[in-house]
Amino acid sequence: MVDFGSGFWWMMAAIGLYFVAMLAVGVWASTRTRDKDDYMIGGRDLPPTVAALSAGASDMSGWLLMGLPGALYMGGMVQAWIAIGLTIGAWINWKVVAPRLRMFTEKYNNAITLPSFLGNRLVRGGRMLRIVAGLVILVFFTFYISSGMVAGGNFTSSAFGGALSESFGWGHEETYVVGMLVIAGVTIAYTLIGGFLGASYTDFFQGTLMFLALLLVPIVVLFMVGDPGHIIQRVDEVHPGAWNLFDVGAAGGVIGVISLAAWGLGYFGQPHILVRFMALRSHEDAVAGRRIGVAWMALCVLGAILTALFAIPLVDRGRIALTNSETAETVFLDAAIGLFPAFLAGLVLAAVLAAIMSTISSQLVVTTSAMVEDLALLFRRKPLAAKTALWISRAGVLIVAVVAAVMALDPAESILALVGFAWAGFGAAFGPIVLLSLYWRKLTGIGATAAMATGAIVVILWPRTPWADIYEIIPGFIAATLVAVVVSLITYTPDAGVEQRFDEAVALSHRGLPTQPEADDAAPATAAAAHSGETGQAQGNPPQGNPAGSNGASPAGGRKAPWESSS
């Protein structure tokens, strides 16, 4: 915890500089935001590096720098199974989902939200599916956004509670509320101004800051000690078994380890991550995005693991003062304050803010997209003017943010618990149907709707069952998959047009990828491109408006769309 003095103001200067930089990026992004599509998906022109770091930063949130280090500090290396499961899940998500989702969402009427894609892809029962999907996003993301705001309040109280108490006489509650409102206010401001592009490019800079901070802390500790073997030995002396990745007893047994690793299942259903895939310049950029994103993630979680474990002997010796001894979720903050000069410590603390704010902003955009595009505007027969729809989207951001902030005023659970609940909800409700919609032609709208409702309900009810030790994403994901398959097989009827369109989208999604030789799929892909307009008309589901987006540019960031090449 920081005391009031010159160090406090140097830290405030560093954090203030960070806030100004984020607002500046939001203002820049606003100059490239002309309509609702730009505001919600950035005109499908996101470079792979920005998409990768944006997906990672919006994914990791305060969990990476607060929740995960706290769990590792308290429970040892076995808690790293969360990070292992997530890293593997992220790689599979980029490999299996990203290329197809990018092409499928463009192919199916240029869908700009996940519910609208599912509604367009699954033509029978698609309208009801969009409504249910929009409601699931609205409910679970409100909890998720609230968890980010809770993290912001806890950050302020942990880092600056002593200084603010000394200077202004504030207690924990006042510090928490003021910090939460300031952090939420800055995040809401640049999200309101810049929309999806503002969130994505601030995420890129925030992801870079998180990466540097997470590697800097353990490197500095190693330089201080001078002997890696000594710090490893000291950790084991203070916390025996801390380095044991297979200490299943410390994780609650085999079921506990499986539950930790099962976090990786959640990736397939996270709308704020999947929308980054949809916004790529082309499906071919998913290859570079996967390499950059997974490398960034692996190094970040390694930094979080080493920071937490290296802090164990430093706290024991009094070199670092642990602010929160119950959950240890402040260990990264405490290490930065205890090890670095004030201004540098402020920049490291800004990395924690970056993790928190990047997730809040991304989730605000996706939640608003669901509320506006998939709930409110779905019932309008006439489309709104571009500017009107843009301002309605901004109003949606404000409404969702206010509700989440009110919920965050009285936090009842840890950051990890809140994130875990929302992560499981999205993973179980959306994960199975996203995978099936991209890889199984027989999935129906009725089957997907039933599966989504099943996954969400199981996640909500599972903690109240006798088997609550199993992470709720596991039964939720399994139940939703079974329901999707069974109900779809019952309600499916063959339709040559629907199946042909699915095959065309699959063929197009293979083009240009290194795993699929160009010679093998050139002919079917070309044929698919040649017939794409005809089949869309024949199925009564024609492309709506300009498939390249309202700005007239191609969705591939300057390259022609596949159907344009046929002319």
Write a structural description:
The chain has 567 residues and is an all-alpha fold. Helices cover 74% and strands 0% of the residues. It has helices spanning 6-30, 36-41, 48-75, 81-107, 114-121, 126-168, 172-225, 228-238, 254-261, 271-278, 285-316, 331-339, 342-376, 386-408, 415-439, 445-461, 473-491, 496-510, 518-538, 562-565. Helix 4 (81-107) packs across helix 18, helix 5 (114-121) runs antiparallel to helix 6 (126-168) and helix 6 runs parallel beside helix 16. The termini are far apart. Residues 516-567 have low confidence and may be disordered.
Please name the defining characteristics of this protein.
globular, mainly alpha, 567 residues
In short:
This protein is mostly helical and 567 residues long.
Write the layout of secondary structure elements.
Elements: H1 6-30, H2 36-41, H3 48-75, H4 81-107, H5 114-121, H6 126-168, H7 172-225, H8 228-238, H9 254-261, H10 271-278, H11 285-316, H12 331-339, H13 342-376, H14 386-408, H15 415-439, H16 445-461, H17 473-491, H18 496-510, H19 518-538, H20 562-565
